[in-house]
Design goal:
7% strand, Arc Repressor Mutant, subunit A, 4 strands, 9 helices, alpha+beta, four-stranded mixed β-sheet, 3 domains, 246 residues, single chain, Glutaredoxin
């Protein structure tokens, strides 16, 4: 006889072990103290518990609710609204492939399909060794470098199926591929702690960050009336003030 789902409410989540709870509670007090209203710290607290387990577990939701005097339903509503909060454990390296319009047209869909086959996992799944999880992302806000892959929210620009597969192979082999822009890679849990609002304490990691490159500035240059590269004198967009003088 098969089991029948009766729709009964889930049992209350277990608390963290005492030593873990004490450590996280100290971090939570620091985060909450940064806000005039305690519940404003919910997003950082969700990153904090994600840094502990690699996802936002029922135990993590219970912890956040207790710290902020909210119901678990209120915390769950927020945790399930934002896609950066995982509902199942992420790999050490969480790979997000942009499949929104521009990235998709330029090869994002193919990259995502081939990565799934290469890794033997599907969307939001993690490899058996726990090293790589994969997710299709609606937009990485880097259309000027499409197609884009992110690893723990650091950019790897102008990807191809071959370069993306090499990237995950290097990660699984213990190599240290460098993002196109931004800080050096750290684990997903370490990234979550940084996103919670704690400093990146790795020597030189912050200095490795970079600003937007040439593609990011192209629209601004053209809007100012600069000529297209290789086409002297040809203006795609005239400066706003041009032709308005009395």
């Amino acid at each position: 006889m098969t089991n029948v789902e009766l729709g009964l409410p889930a049992l209350p989540a277990k608390p963290y072990p005492a030593e873990v709870h004490e450590r996280l509670a100290a971090d939570a007090r620091e985060l909450i103290g940064r806000y005039p209203v305690a519940r404003s710290a919910l997003l950082p607290l969700l990153h904090l518990v994600q840094a502990e387990e690699g996802f936002v577990s029922p135990t993590g939701i219970r912890f956040c609710a207790e710290q902020l005097e909210l119901t678990t339903a209120e915390v769950t509503a927020v945790a399930t609204f934002y896609t950066m909060y995982r509902r199942r454990p992420a790999g050490k390296y969480h790979v997000g492939v942009c499949t929104n319009t521009l990235c998709a047209v330029l090869g994002g869909d193919q990259i995502f399909a081939e990565l799934q086959d290469h890794l033997g996992v599907k969307n939001n799944e993690t490899t058996a060794d726990g090293e790589i999880s994969i997710e299709h992302i609606e937009c990485n806000a880097a259309c000027d470098y499409a197609p884009v892959v992110m690893v723990n929210w650091e950019f790897f620009d102008n990807q191809t199926p071959e370069s993306a597969k090499q990237l995950v192979d290097d990660l699984r082999a213990g190599h240290d591929p460098q993002p196109t822009r931004g800080a050096r890679l750290c684990s997903f849990k370490e990234t979550s702690r940084i996103l919670a609002g704690f400093p990146d304490e790795r020597p030189g990691a912050v200095d490795a960050s970079g600003a937007g490159g040439t593609p990011s500035m192209a629209g601004l240059r053209l809007s100012k009336g600069e000529a297209l590269p290789g086409a002297p004198g040809t203006k795609v967009v005239s400066p706003r003030h041009e032709g308005t003088e009395a």
